[in-house]
């Protein structure tokens, strides 16, 4: 049946045996001292045996997991069409709601800016009147207009009504307009490019601010 996927029984006895053997090898490795050619040769022989054992374990593991990988693929393929369509629909609604909320916030800010500007003009006009009466020597009138100036406050525009079930948070994006103007603390060295250059020049060309550390890497063994 296309709607039923059977999972085979899996015997992991080899893994349990390998764990016991690997623990013994690890304990021995922790006590290894390499100071003589003979000790180095023994360490090299052990390293090569471990590498062979790792290959054997990897082959055993793949033999067990390959059927599971195929089963997983079948399950993923079954669910993928529905998941992809729902994810696309989700993104459409997400973009639409995000655009709507951003536009409502822009309108609110614009309305608030206009109210703030109107309040500023009224406040300055009242302050001017206060100064005018003060010059004329009428302190009472000057105080009245000064008090009026202090009471001129722009009303706060209400935020747009929330969409039930939707939670928002403020976020900001950036666009680099001039890399040369960016402060040094925000510039990160391209370690990958530097490493590639040092390897290609075999460490013979120095780079200011970079310490080149040579080392031996074992690339081949019996």
Q: In brief, what are we looking at here?
A:
The chain has 222 residues and is mostly helical. It has helices at 13-30, 37-135, 139-151, 191-200.
How would you state the average pLDDT, rounded? Answer: 91
Shape: elongated
Quantity of strands, as a count = 0
> Structural class given helices, strands, pairing?
mainly alpha
What is the distance, rounded to the nearest whole angstrom, between the alpha carbons of the first and last residues?
50 Å
Please provide a written account of the structure.
- By secondary structure, this protein is an all-alpha fold.
- It has a domain at 13-18 and 34-160.
- The chain contains four helices and no strands.
- The mean pLDDT is 91.
């Amino acid at each position: 049946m296309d709607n039923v996927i059977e999972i085979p029984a899996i015997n992991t006895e080899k893994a349990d045996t390998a764990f016991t053997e690997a623990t013994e090898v690890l304990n021995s490795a922790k006590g290894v001292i390499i100071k003589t050619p003979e000790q180095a040769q023994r360490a090299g022989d052990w390293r090569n045996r471990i590498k062979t054992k790792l290959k054997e374990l990897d082959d055993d593991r793949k033999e067990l997991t390959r059927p599971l990988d195929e089963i997983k693929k079948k399950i993923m393929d079954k669910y993928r069409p529905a998941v992809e369509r729902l994810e696309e629909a989700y993104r459409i609604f997400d973009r639409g709601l995000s655009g709507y909320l951003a536009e409502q916030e822009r309108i609110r800010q614009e309305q608030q800016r206009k109210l703030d500007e109107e309040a500023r003009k009224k406040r300055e006009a009242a302050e001017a009147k206060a100064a005018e009466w003060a010059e004329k020597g009428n302190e009472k009138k000057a105080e009245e207009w000064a008090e009026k100036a202090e009471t001129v406050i722009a009303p706060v525009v209400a935020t747009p009504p929330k969409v039930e079930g939707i939670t928002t948070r403020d976020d900001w994006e950036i666009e680099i307009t001039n890399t040369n103007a960016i402060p040094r603390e925000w510039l990160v060295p391209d370690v990958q490019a530097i490493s590639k250059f040092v390897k290609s020049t075999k460490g013979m060309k120095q780079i200011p601010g970079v310490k080149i550390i040579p080392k031996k890497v074992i690339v081949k063994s019996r």
